[in-house]
Design goal:
Blueprint (H helix, E strand, L loop, with lengths): L3 E6 L5 H10 L4 E7 L3 H11 L3 E2 L2 H6 L4 E4 L6 H10 L4 E3 L7 H12 L4 E3 L7 H10 L7 E7 L3 H12 L7 E13 L13 E13 L4 E7 L11 E6 L2 E4 L2 E5 L5 E14 L9 E10 L2 E4 L10 H17 L8 H20 L3 E2 L7
Parallel strand pairs: 1-2, 1-4, 2-3, 4-5, 5-6, 7-10
Antiparallel strand pairs: 7-11, 8-9, 8-17, 9-10, 11-12, 12-13, 13-14, 14-15, 15-16
Helix pairs in contact: 1-8, 4-5, 5-9, 7-9
C-alpha cells in the first residue's frame, strides 16, 4: 500500500505520539494536518513541531484523509469520534471507546450501520506482548487458567487479560476490587523528573476477575507504574503444564520433564532531539526470540520508536487497510468490552461489592 494519509483531531500530549510516528516513518505515513481548537494553540503546535495545523474542520475534511485520528480528552473522545464517523470517515480513536454504557451502545449502533471505528488498543501489539502471546498460544503451558497481571491499567489491562488467558470478549465475569493509597517517592511525570526524593500518596487498584468458564485473573496496577523506575510491570500466567513469570517460561516437555527457558529481548538505546525526560532516550526493541525461534522482528525496521509508538504505528497502518475494505486491526466488540470491563471494575471499587457483567449487544 502507499502512504497512510491521516489527520489528528486534538493537540494534547498523546497527539504528539502520532507526530513522532510520521516523522520517524515518512515513507509510510503522511500527517496532513492537526486540527486544534484555537488559533493560539494551532500556532504553537506548528512552531514547536514543524507540522501543518488548522482550526478549520472543513479544511481537514476536504483533505480526504485515509484515517482520522481522534486524540481528545476522555470525556469527549466518543462524541468526537461519532461526529467524524457520521461524516463518512474511518476513525482511529484513542482509548477508552467511551466512559458509559449508553455511549458504548451508540458506537456499536454506528458500527452496525457500516461506520468504521477502530479504538487504538495497542498493547497486544507491543513487541514484548506479541512475543508473550505467541509463546502462550503455542500450547506449551497447556490450558491457561490463572493470571496475575500488573501490566497496564483498566481497559488496557482488560485487553491483555483476555488475550493472555485466551478468552473471547463474550465470556461473562464477576469482579471485586479495591483501591489503596500508599506513600511513594515521585520520580517521573509526563513532563519532568524529580530527584529530591519527595513523597506523595499514590493509588493502587487490586481486583479479582472470575470468569464463567472457571478462569481467574488477578489485576494489580499502581498509578506510578508506567513511568516510575521503582514500580515495574510483572505477570504470572499459569497453565496446566507450566507457567510464564515475566520473561521466564517453566513447562513440562513431551516426556513430562521440567524445562525452564528465557524469552530473550534485544534492545538498543536511541538518543533523540527531545528535552522531555520521557523522550530524550528511547529503548527500541530490535528482536525477541524463544528457544531459537524468532518471536518478533521490527516490521518497520530500526526507526527509533519505543514499544508504545511501534504498536501505535502498526495500528495506524492497519486501520488504513481497514478503511479500504480490509479487516479491523482490533474488532470494535473487543474495544467495547475493554471499556465495559473498566466501567464495572470502577463500580466494584466505588461500591465495595461484587459486580456481575451482563451480555451486551456486541457480545
Amino acid at each position: 500500500m502507499g502512504k497512510t494519509r491521516f489527520i489528528i483531531v486534538g493537540s494534547g500530549w498523546r497527539s504528539l505520539y502520532y507526530v513522532r510516528i510520521a516523522r520517524a516513518l515518512p515513507e509510510r505515513f503522511e500527517l496532513c494536518a492537526m486540527l486544534c481548537r484555537t488559533e493560539e494553540k494551532a500556532r504553537r503546535m506548528a512552531a514547536e513541531n514543524g507540522i501543518y495545523t488548522t482550526i478549520s474542520e472543513a479544511e481537514c475534511m476536504a483533505m480526504k484523509p485515509d484515517v482520522v485520528v481522534v486524540v481528545v480528552n476522555k470525556a469527549s473522545i466518543a462524541e468526537v469520534s461519532a461526529h467524524w464517523l457520521k461524516n463518512g470517515f474511518c476513525v482511529l480513536s484513542e482509548t477508552p471507546a467511551a466512559l458509559d454504557l449508553p455511549m458504548l451502545d451508540r458506537l456499536w449502533g454506528l458500527h452496525t450501520r457500516g461506520c468504521r471505528l477502530v479504538v487504538n488498543e495497542q498493547y497486544r501489539l507491543y513487541p514484548i506482548y506479541r512475543a508473550l502471546l505467541s509463546v502462550s498460544e503455542s500450547g506449551i503451558l497447556g490450558e491457561k487458567n490463572c493470571l496475575n497481571c500488573s501490566l497496564a491499567h483498566e481497559y488496557h489491562g482488560a485487553s491483555l487479560m483476555r488475550a493472555l488467558l485466551g478468552l473471547h470478549q463474550s465470556e461473562q465475569f464477576s469482579v471485586t476490587a479495591k483501591t489503596y493509597e500508599f506513600p511513594t517517592a515521585e520520580t517521573l511525570t509526563r513532563y519532568e523528573s524529580f530527584t529530591d526524593g519527595h513523597v506523595a500518596m499514590k493509588k493502587r487498584t487490586v481486583a479479582t476477575f472470575k470468569f464463567r468458564n472457571g478462569k481467574v485473573a488477578f489485576y494489580d496496577f499502581d498509578s506510578e507504574q508506567y513511568r516510575s523506575p521503582i514500580r515495574r510491570n510483572t505477570l504470572r500466567l499459569q497453565g496446566v503444564r507450566g507457567e510464564i513469570i515475566d520473561n521466564t517460561v517453566h513447562y513440562l516437555d513431551s516426556e513430562n520433564m521440567p524445562v525452564s527457558s528465557q524469552i530473550n529481548v534485544s534492545t538498543r538505546k536511541v538518543r533523540t532531539c527531545y528535552d522531555n525526560p520521557n523522550l530524550s532516550m528511547v529503548e527500541e526493541v530490535t528482536g525477541i526470540d524463544f528457544e531459537g525461534k524468532k518471536k518478533y522482528e521490527p516490521e518497520f525496521g530500526l526507526c527509533g520508536l519505543a514499544q508504545d509508538e511501534t504498536a501505535m504505528a502498526t495500528m495506524l497502518e492497519r486501520t488504513a487497510l481497514y478503511a479500504k475494505g480490509g479487516l479491523s486491526p482490533y474488532p470494535l466488540e473487543e474495544a467495547l468490552q475493554d471499556a465495559y470491563t473498566a466501567i464495572l471494575m470502577q463500580k466494584a471499587v466505588e461500591t465495595g461489592q461484587k459486580v456481575e457483567s451482563e451480555v451486551q449487544p456486541w457480545n
